[in-house]
């Protein structure tokens, strides 16, 4: 077929309006299960300190004779630990013209970019909290860094046996949190999970949350679907379709129920087993949008947040480390 001679088509026209819908589609995830679960507290200095303590081991032979003279022992001191606040920052600059023109999907370029950068910092914070980063005290040329959860957990970490894996933990000699040394990865199993939960329980913890990368969340669903352990898996909110699994799964262990969450922003080689009551994000400066001095026909902005991870007692948590993630 051929176009009729003299037809004036849309290819010839110059005044047709564009067909740009008034929306912007962004599927970048912002769910941050660990920081949401542990909540926030307050920091008042760049070096945030707290104390831990423990009771003497229980004794079945605490018995004295009648009329016995008292003997005294010196009380044990508390342990003082610390973490450093980390400054999160995202910047952007928008021309005066761009802020003024009619835009699709947003009325204000500044407002849109500020919201976008705030979400990016939220994701960065989740990644930092769940990380194996050592803490860094910082100086005039070195940025401070918080020690992440994987670095803090040393009492109840289940390590790979091959290679040279080693716990991290708080170093009282240097005053910083040391990163753990990764070992050779092996498959995630129910036995490894139960071992870590038992260790936390034996040391006084009552973990209620498991945070996993996407690969090992599927592995978890796989070994929990096995007929031998199917009764140890259920869903929340009375959902009877237990075969349709999601991040709301609950693992009923010998030592309590734990909500299982998939986490896009943690290290996929770690299974973090947490008691959210014993951790928080200690905030020194709440997230805010700073507007530096204007130096040209553009608007400068910086989104800033300063905080640290407070791990009230690392023995309340556990970690199955050195897991295969592909």
Describe this structure in words.
- By secondary structure, the chain is of the alpha+beta class.
- A 7-stranded mixed beta sheet has the order 5-15-12-8-11-10-9. Strands 1-13-14-4 form a 4-stranded mixed beta sheet. A two-stranded antiparallel ribbon has the order 2-3.
- Strand 6 and strand 7 form a beta hairpin.
- The chain is elongated.
Computed Rg = 27 Å
Alpha-beta classification: alpha+beta
Q: Let me know the average pLDDT.
A: 91
**Can you write the helix and strand succession as a string?**
HEEEEHHHEEEHEHEEEEEEE
Oligomer: single chain
The neighbouring-strand order within the major sheet is 5-15-12-8-11-10-9
Overall body shape: elongated
Could you estimate the helical fraction of the residues in percent? 10-25%
State the low-pLDDT regions, or none: 240-248
End-to-end CA span: 54 Å
β-strand amount: 25-35%
Number of strands: 15
Task: Describe the largest sheet.
Answer: 7 strands, mixed
Total helical segments: 6
Write the layout of secondary structure elements.
Blueprint: H1 33-38, E1 40-42, E2 47-52, E3 79-84, E4 86-95, H2 96-100, H3 109-129, H4 149-152, E5 157-158, E6 169-171, E7 176-178, H5 190-202, E8 209-212, H6 214-224, E9 233-235, E10 249-253, E11 256-262, E12 271-274, E13 279-290, E14 298-311, E15 318-320
Parallel strand pairs: 1-13, 5-15, 8-11
Antiparallel strand pairs: 2-3, 4-14, 6-7, 8-12, 9-10, 10-11, 12-15, 13-14
């Amino acid at each position: 077929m051929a176009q009729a001679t003299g037809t004036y088509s849309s290819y010839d026209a110059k005044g047709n309006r564009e067909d740009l819908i008034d929306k912007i589609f962004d599927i970048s995830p912002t769910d941050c299960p660990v920081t949401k679960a542990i909540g926030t507290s307050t920091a008042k200095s760049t070096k945030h300190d707290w104390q831990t303590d423990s009771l003497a081991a229980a004794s079945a032979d605490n018995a004295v004779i009648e009329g016995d003279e008292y003997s005294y022992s010196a009380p044990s001191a508390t342990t003082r630990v610390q973490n450093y606040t980390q400054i999160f920052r995202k910047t952007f600059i928008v021309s005066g013209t761009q802020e003024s023109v009619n835009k699709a999907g947003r009325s204000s370029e500044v407002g849109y970019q500020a919201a976008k950068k705030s979400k990016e910092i939220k994701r960065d914070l989740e990644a930092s909290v769940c990380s194996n980063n050592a803490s860094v005290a910082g100086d005039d040329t070195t940025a401070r860094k918080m020690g992440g959860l994987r670095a803090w957990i040393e009492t109840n970490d289940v390590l790979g046996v091959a290679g040279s894996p080693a716990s991290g933990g708080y170093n009282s000699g240097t005053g910083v949190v040391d990163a753990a040394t990764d070992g050779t990865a092996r498959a995630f199993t129910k036995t490894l999970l139960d071992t870590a939960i038992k260790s936390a329980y034996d040391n006084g913890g009552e973990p209620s949350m498991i945070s996993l990368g996407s690969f090992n969340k599927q592995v978890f669903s796989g070994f929990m679907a096995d007929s031998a352990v199917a009764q140890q898996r259920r869903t929340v909110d009375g959902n009877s379709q237990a075969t349709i699994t999601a991040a709301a799964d609950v693992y009923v262990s010998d030592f309590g129920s734990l909500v299982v969450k998939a986490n896009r922003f943690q290290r996929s080689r770690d299974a973090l087993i947490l008691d959210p009551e014993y951790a928080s994000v200690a905030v020194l400066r709440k997230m805010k949008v700073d507007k530096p001095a204007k130096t040209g026909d553009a608007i400068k902005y910086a989104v800033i947040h300063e905080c640290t991870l407070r791990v009230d007692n690392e023995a309340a948590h556990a970690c199955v480390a050195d897991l295969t993630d592909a």
